[in-house]
Amino acid sequence: MHSGLNIGFRHLFPTIPLIYLMAASAIKTWFSNMDIPAPKNALDLFASFTKSAIKVFLKYLALFIILVWALFEAVAAYPYFLSYFNEIGGGIWNGYRFVDDSNYDWGQDLLRLQSFVQNHPEINKIAVDYFGGGDPGYYLGNKEVNWWASRDNPADSGIHYLAISINTLEQAIILAKNNPQDSNDNYAWLSRLRPPKAGPGEVSAPDYRVGTSIFVYKL
Questions:
Q1: pLDDT tier at 38 (50, 70, 90 boundaries)?
Q2: Residue 80 and residue 35: Cα distance in Å, rounded?
Q3: CA 182 – CA 103 distance, rounded (Å)
Q4: CA separation (Å) from 69 to 28, 86, 91, 111?
Q5: What are the backbone angles phi and psi of residue 124, rounded to the nearest 5°?
Q6: Can you tell me whether residue 208 is helix, strand or coil?
Q7: pLDDT tier at 97 (50, 70, 90 boundaries)?
Q8: Is residue 61 classed exposed, middle or buried when 0-12, 13-18 and 19+ CB atoms within 10 A define those classes?
Q9: Residue 118 CB contacts under 8 Å (≥ 6 apart), including other chains
Q10: What is the chain's alpha carbon radius of gyration, rounded to the nearest angstrom?
């Protein structure tokens, strides 16, 4: 964590097995610590037994709820595991409002963009500003036009669809906010066309969303 390259949760992965061991140890200690006083008579024995039974039941119930919740979270996250955030963090669909880069968007939705374009025959050209290691042109063919912020609004070039990775868009909007003199090169025009939403990047709501990480705007 003292590294100058803190750009993702993956830096914490080595601690996870230790966290599991510590959590298991804490749960075991919690269950074994009942603190039941020695009974003085039969009535006291019954009261102590009842109290103990209720305490054990509540503890097992709490553990059961946590385990079921964890299972539900894993199933509900499918197939967007890379973009997973719990509900406190905004959930799968809103985690980008807190952090980006490999925490949320690592170019995982390029094949989904291919399917999206195939399922929308009205798209004859689409500008693509993609964050990832793949080649959008390979998957989209002659419908894809490579785009970047300084090229401004694709509609001015007769292209009425823009697909942009949320990581690229959010960083561009933040850069434009911090450097107003360079705002023409950082998708500031998109914020003027669509009202910004809450979050660090104040990203405008898209017309379509491909997976979790590619926003598509109809211009």
A1: low
A2: 44
A3: 27
A4: 20, 11, 14, 30
A5: -95, -25
A6: strand
A7: confident
A8: exposed
A9: none
A10: 25
- Taken as a whole, the chain contains a residue count of 219
Whether the Cβ atoms of residue 110 and residue 136 lie closer than 8 Å to each other: yes
56 φ, ψ (degrees, to nearest 5): -65, -45
DSSP 204: B
Instruction: Say yes or no to pLDDT of 44 above 80.
Output: no
- Other beta carbons within 10 angstroms of residue 151's beta carbon come to 15
Tokens of 21: 């061991």
d(CA 134, CA 107): 8
Cα–Cα distance between 12 and 3 in angstroms, integer?
Answer: 12
Token reading at 59: 């503890």
Q: What is the tens place of the pLDDT at every residue in 67-82?
A: 999 899 989 899 999 9
Of 182 and 77, the structure prediction assigns the larger pLDDT to 77
> What ranges make up the beta strands (E) of 5-107?
none
pTM above threshold 0.90:
no
Is the Cβ–Cβ distance between 185 and 150 less than 8 Å?
A: yes
